[in-house]
Amino acid sequence: QVQLVESGGGVVQAGDSLRLSCAASERTFSHYTVAWFYQAPGTEREFVSAISGSGGTTHYENSVKGRFTISRDNGKNTVYLQMDSLKPEDTAVYYCAAGIGWHNLYVPASYNSWGQGTQVTVSS
């Protein structure tokens, strides 16, 4: 399994932007589908976005469409989540996850590698 480390979280005001990074220690990182999930206190972990290994295919949960953009730079072994127009309801711990294949994207069990998470707090 690939090792993942998230960074870029913080405390921002509603309407502001953040860019999260997910760095991988894997030379074959381009082979992995990478997804972002978020988890608020007392809730289950929920899907945010996913990107294919090549970066050519992306998918977003409805609540973030038009606001968040997932991208990757395989030369840097890094996946990004650009979060614009942040809302208080976006407040959560954000995790990146990696797996093989483009299927069952919403299901955490589809991914076998997870980062430790980075906290995003959006104040109103």
Describe the fold and architecture:
By secondary structure, this protein is mostly beta strands. 0% of the residues lie in helices and 48% in strands. It contains no helices and 11 strands. It has strands at residues 4-7, 10-13, 18-24, 33-39, 46-51, 58-60, 68-73, 78-83, 92-99, 113-114, 118-123. Strands 2, 4, 5, 6, 9, 10 and 11 form a 7-stranded mixed β-sheet that branches. Strands 1-3-8-7 form a 4-stranded antiparallel β-sheet, with no helix packed on it. A hairpin with a 6-residue loop joins strand 5 (46-51) and strand 6 (58-60). The N and C termini lie far apart (39 Å).
Comma- or semicolon-separated keywords:
124 residues; single chain; four-stranded antiparallel β-sheet; mainly beta
